[in-house]
Amino acid sequence: MSRPYAKLPAWIDFGLIPLLNLVIAFAVAGLVVLMVGESPIAAARLMLQGAFGYGEGFGFTLYYTTNFIFTGLAVAVAFHAGLFNIGGEGQAYVGGLGVGLVSLVLDRLVPWWVTLPFAILGGFLFGALWALIPAWLQARRGSHIVITTIMFNFIAASLMVYLLVGPLKPVGSMNPQSRTLEAGAQLPKLDGLFAAFGADLGGAPLNITLFLALIAAFLVWLLIFRTRLGYELRTLGFSPPAARYAGMSQTRLIVIAMTISGGLAGLMALNPVIGDQYRVQIDLAAGAGFVGIAVALMGRAHPAGIIPAALLFGVLYQGGAELAFEMPSISRDMIVIIQGLVILFAGALENMLRPAVGGAYRRLRLPATQTLPVEEAT
After folding, report:
1. Is residue 261 in some structural domain?
2. pLDDT tens digits for 10-34?
3. Residues 6+ apart with CB under 8 A from 164
4. How many folded domains does the chain comprise?
5. CA 375 to chain centre
6. 57 alpha-carbon distance from chain centroid
C-alpha cells in the first residue's frame, strides 16, 4: 500500500510506531478502567494471567490467534492490490460450508489426514468463489468493493441460516447445525505436544490448524514479495496508472487478489468446523473476519506483522474473558471498548504519530556539527 509520508526504516515503520500506538491505546483503556473504579495495573495483570498464566488459557489464546492469522492474511492480500475487503466474515462463513460439506461426505470413510487436504480445498474454493462475485463487479462494472463485500456478509449469513435450519439439519434435531462429524473429520489437538513441555491445555480446542495458519503466512509472504504476481499486485495497489502503463491487466489482478483473499478467509473455518465444534453451525466465524481488518492494519499488511498482531487480539479475546469474570465491574462490553481502542489507535490512526516520529528520526540522524552554508545563513 502507498504511504502518505516519507519512507522510514523497517524497525520504525513496523516496530516502533505500532508499539507507540499500542501504548497509547492501552493508556486510554487504563483511563476507562479507572473510571469504573478498578486498578488498570490489576486489570492488565489479570488479562495477561488469563491469556498466558495457565495452559488452558494459553491454548485458547492460540486458538483465537489461529483464526485471526487467516483473516488478517486475507485482508492483507487485498490491501496490497489497493482493495479493502470487508467481506472476510461472509467468506469465512461460506468457507465453513465448503469445509463442512467435504467433511460430511468423507468423515465416515477415511481418516482425518485424508479428509484434511480436501477440507482445505473446499474451504479455500468456497471462500474464493464468494469473493469472486464482488471482485468481478468491481473489475467489470465499477461497483465499490467495500459496499459489495459488506452486503455479501449479510447474504452469506442468510444463506447459512437457510441451510442450517433446512437441508443440513439432521432429521429430528432442533438445533440450527449440521450433524456431528465423525473421527474421520476431527483434527488432532495439540495437548500432547504441549504436555511434553509440562503444559496442560485442559479443554482448550487448540489443534493443528495453528501450523496451517503459519504455513499460510509464509506462502503469502512468498506470493507478495517473491513472485511476479505479487509485484504486479503491489504495483496495482501503489499506482493503478503505473500498472496500466506497464501493461498489467487491472481486471485480472483485482479478480486474482480478491479470490486469494476470499480463499484465505475461507480457510479460517477449518479451525472451528473440524478443529473444535466438529459441525457446521450458526455464526461459526464469530467476528473473526472483522477482527482480521484490524490485524492487517496493525501488522502493516505484512505476514511478519500479522502474526504478532493476531496474537495480541488473541490475548484481548481470551484475557478479556478472564478479566470480565474476575472483575465484575468490568463488563464484556468494556472489553469490547478496549479492543476498539486498540483498533482505533493501531489501525484507523496508524499515521497519527508518524510525522513526529519521522521528524525526530531525521533530526537525530543529522550530524550535531552540521551548519547551514554561508550564503543560506545570510
Report:
1. yes
2. 787 777 888 888 888 888 888 888 8
3. 176, 177, 178, 280, 281, 282
4. 1
5. 55
6. 20
